[in-house]
Design brief:
- By secondary structure, the protein is mainly alpha-helical.
- 81% of the residues lie in helices and 0% in strands.
- The protein has helices at 3-24, 29-44, 59-82, 85-108, 114-131, 141-167, 171-204, 206-227, 232-239, 242-253, 260-278.
- The longest helix is centred in the C-terminal third of the chain and has 34 residues, at 171-204.
Length: 279
């Protein structure tokens, strides 16, 4: 993976941590998620008129991605409702790279080398250490179940979009159409069930909704572009350093404590990043 691609994916991870921090600070996870999804669609909409259509071969992948993204939003909202973000987010993001690597081997015939596997395992291990909190009670089974189910969904849509973006002829066309179409079903669902609440929420938080949408769109756009430049498994693992950025943001802005174990997680993740860079 080139230095340019590596830095781009790390920046995408920072953006991903940023818009998830916005969701974390919201009193209504469903409305905030819907507002960010709608915001991403609005940000992408103008580019439909300046970019060519994706190649016909990529449209089945766009359709499949739309279906899996609906499952992603559902499991994410349910996981955040059932358990703490510090439990569910790392489970979703930390498990997905391993599943993505396995799917990449089976479906894309991408066989990671030893250093790539080492980097993926170190990043996943660092995420586990970074997210650890002493618990005085057992975590809700529902929260763990929804988070792990979403990890599978994340791995599936990552492989789908990585393939579709490569077949699109123009990766940016694929990205723009994906975000515009992705915003439609989820937003319509929320409008049908909570229209007044949704409009009131967006009216009260217009800047954060658009900023979150822009960050979400940019983060995934960069990741998809990177998947056309490097193996999907490598990009997926490096992208999950968003957990590291989320922890640093929490320590800096929310005054959350970084324990020795969590600092060890930082060091493990950075070692994994370096292994992916060398691979």
């Amino acid at each position: 993976m080139s230095l340019e691609v590596s830095f781009a994916v790390l920046f995408a991870a920072l953006l991903h941590a940023g818009w998830n921090a916005l969701i974390k600070g919201s009193a209504d996870v469903l409305l905030k998620t819907a507002a960010i999804v709608a915001g991403a669609g609005l940000v992408a909409l103008p580019f439909l008129f300046v970019l060519p259509l994706p190649a016909p071969a990529s449209w089945p992948y766009i359709a499949a991605s739309l279906a899996t993204h609906l499952a992603y939003y559902y499991f994410m909202v349910q996981a955040y409702r059932a358990g703490d973000l510090s439990l569910t987010y790392p489970l979703m993001r930390g498990t997905a790279p391993l599943l993505t690597a396995l799917l990449g081997m089976l479906l894309l015939r991408e066989l990671p080398g030893l250093l790539t596997w080492l980097g993926i395992l170190l990043i996943c291990g660092g995420i586990v250490a970074l997210s650890y909190r002493p618990l005085d009670h057992r975590p809700a089974r529902a929260a763990v179940g929804f988070a792990l189910a979403n990890a599978v969904v994340i791995a599936v849509y990552t492989v789908i979009d990585g393939t579709g973006a490569r077949l699109a002829g123009n990766v940016w066309s694929y990205i723009v159409w994906l975000f515009v179409l992705d915003a439609v079903p989820f937003t319509l669902f929320v409008l049908a069930s909570r229209r007044r609440a949704f409009f009131a929420f967006v009216s009260a938080h217009p800047v954060s909704c658009l900023a979150g949408g822009a960050a979400s769109a940019a983060a995934y756009a960069i990741a998809l572009w990177a998947m056309t430049q490097a193996p999907v498994a490598m990009v997926a693992a490096l992208r999950e350093t968003s957990v590291l950025f989320a922890a640093l943001i929490g320590a800096r802005l929310l005054h959350e404590k970084l324990t020795p174990l969590r600092w060890a997680g930082v060091a493990i993740m950075l070692t994994g990043v370096m292994a992916l860079k060398v691979a």
